[in-house]
Amino acid sequence: MVQAPSADSAPADHDKKMTIWEHLDELRSRLIKAIIAYIIGATLAWNYREPILAWLWKPFAQSWKDAGIPGDPAINFAAPSDIFTAYFKLALIGGLLLAAPVMFYQLWAYIAPGLYKKEKRIVIPFVFFSTFLFVGGGLFGWRVAFPITFKWFLDLARGDAPDAPAILIRPVVMLPQYLDFVGQMLMGFGIVFELPILILFLSIAGLVNYLQLIRFGRWFVLVAFTVAAIFTPPDTTSQIVMAVPMCLLYVVSIGLAYLFGKRPSKEEIARSRAERDARRRAKIAEREAARKKKKDENDKKDE
Fold first, then answer.
1. Would you tell me the crossing angle of helices 217-231 and 236-260 to the nearest 10 degrees?
2. What string of DSSP letters covers 92-124?
3. Among the listed residues 150, 135, 145, the one whose alpha carbon sits nearest the alpha carbon of residue 241
4. Strand-strand pairing, 173-174 and 75-76
5. Is the overall model pTM greater than 0.85, yes or no?
6. Is 250 helix (H, G, I), strand (E, B) or coil?
7. 76, containing H or E segment
8. Of 39, 115, 119, 130, which one is least surrounded by beta carbons within 10 A?
């Protein structure tokens, strides 16, 4: 006797298929709602632009003092319109952070009709953790990466080398360039910290599974440092500060894919075990060959 699929195992709106125009109309509606939320968030951020700027300036000012650079840290602007442009950019950055929950919800609401009912139940955890990871990534960059990066740059201006020429190098920080720099760093860390959510979706959709993620692990280290080189300044310390959390988040993603993602096929599991056994045998053979070679060398020395 064949059982009918349960409500939880059948896609939502199974008997209702949307046309391409309905999909486009739904996308337009979700985009409009996300843009409205973004405008509201940017407006609120504009009203608090000075406290937000002071918060973003704090790591650099502290690094300035720690580096022992003479004078008080100051931020400058060249043209009269630069201050308005800088505050406008600051409002855009703050609006993105404030509107993140609504924007993530609109993303989920757009893709939810194609999911199963049991998958649609995770809408609240998805919105919460997406927002938490995005904002948490920005906070991690502000709290950890910014002080390390600024210290590295300001130490270059200090000139501690014993044979350095007696040249006074004083940083003149311009407001637009500073906001561009910290904005890129905040966005970079926020996007990078979304990695577990992205991989979880791919695993639920059946595009990847935990075995594939494990096999790709060694290559992901290269990907992590490449992404870190794009989003961070050209110093090794800042790249490590971004790449190491990426690798840790990738490990967390493997666990999420194992718990909630689609399971690999029996053939893929058997192939993975065979590959693992083959690598183990190869390592054993390599160690035996090295031991034998060392023993032969010792025997020759004794002769």
1. 140
2. HHHHHHHTHHHHHHHHHHHHGGGSBHHHHTTHH
3. 145
4. parallel
5. no
6. helix
7. strand 75-76
8. 39
